[in-house]
Amino acid sequence: MKPEKCSRREFLRWAGSLSLGTVVFSLVGCDTGGMESDPDRGNPPGEETGITIEGNVVTLDLTGSVARRVAEPGGFLHIDAADMLVVNVNGTIRAFSAICTHQGCEIRDFQNNLFTCWCHGSQFDTDGQVVRGPASSPLPEYTVERNGNIVRITKR
Length: 156
What we know:
Largest sheet: 7 strands, antiparallel
Number of strands: 11
Strand order of the largest sheet: 1-2-11-10-5-4-3
Order of helices and strands: HEEEEEEEEEEE
Radius of gyration: 22 Å
Mean pLDDT: 80
């Protein structure tokens, strides 16, 4: 069987349609960095969650259903409503801005003791310092006061 001949114009039209279809298909399946699967979405601050926000102060009750994630060393919490990252580093609770210093994307990921920005891959350690760019500035850190199971974080 002989292949069917087509004009250059028909071929380019066919190739363009195929390329456009591929782009649309890849965008539909595009990974959004886990934003839809963020465990803190749908867990708004409240008494049951152990998270309350009043102005620039976030209070955590470490016995709450969500806040208890940072009660033990290695625990991590992303507080979407406050754009805040909270981590327990060897028993010390630290809090940082969840806004990447590179281009303002929201950081939601914490693995292997690193906060990772899904936009361009910048990584920050548990001191908020940049360990991998493109970000060049550390994450702003917030003041943390702990009294038993109550943690008060003040954004500057």
